[in-house]
Amino acid sequence: MARVCLVGIDGPTAQQIRGAFEPKQHSISYSITHSQFRRTDVLDGIEAVLSGGEPHEYLQSLNFVRARRPDIPFVVISPAPSASAWLDALEAGAADFCALPVDFRHLQWMMTGFDLKRALSGRPAPTFR
Fold first, then answer.
1. How far apart are CA 59 and CA 44, in angstroms?
2. Minimal CB count within 10 Å: which of 44, 71, 108, 127?
3. pLDDT single digits (tens) 118-127
4. 17-73 pLDDT per residue, tens
């Protein structure tokens, strides 16, 4: 099970992601804007970030995560994907890049991969408050 933070993802998409993750027992801890995300300390206990919005927004949030918790996978979910946006996100350190509409099987596959990598790394599973 992974604890996921949604950043800059609109309400309907956030609800769909919540619904897709429930059967896999992943939990959505926060669903906030980019500016709220960068002003708060929500990274404690978070195991992945899914981020939407405009490129300048998600790249700032990605840099915020990389500076504080480089071990957290950061996935961009773009409403307007392009090859340059995809490359910019991956070069900045994103774990993956998805286009809307989201293929929820892809997201679930990614989360399973993140869980496996964490288990293989020998890091203990986080404890949740």
1. 20
2. 127
3. 655 655 554 4
4. 887 777 666 678 777 899 888 887 788 878 889 999 899 999 999 999 999 999 899
Whole-number Å distance between alpha carbons of 102 and 39: 27
CATH of the domain at 80: 3.40.50.2300
The yes-or-no verdict on residue 8 having pLDDT over 90 is yes
User: What's the total number of domains in the chain?
Assistant: 1
In a domain, 108, yes or no: yes
Can you tell me the distance from the alpha carbon of 44 to that of 29, in angstroms, rounded to the nearest whole number?
A: 11
DSSP-derived 3-state class of residue 6: strand
Asked whether residue 89 is domain-assigned, the answer is: yes
Does 129 reside within a domain? no
Give the span between the Cα atoms of 51 and 110, in whole angstroms: 14
82 part of a folded domain: yes
User: Which of the two residues, 74 and 99, has the higher pLDDT score?
Assistant: 74
Residues in the chain: 129
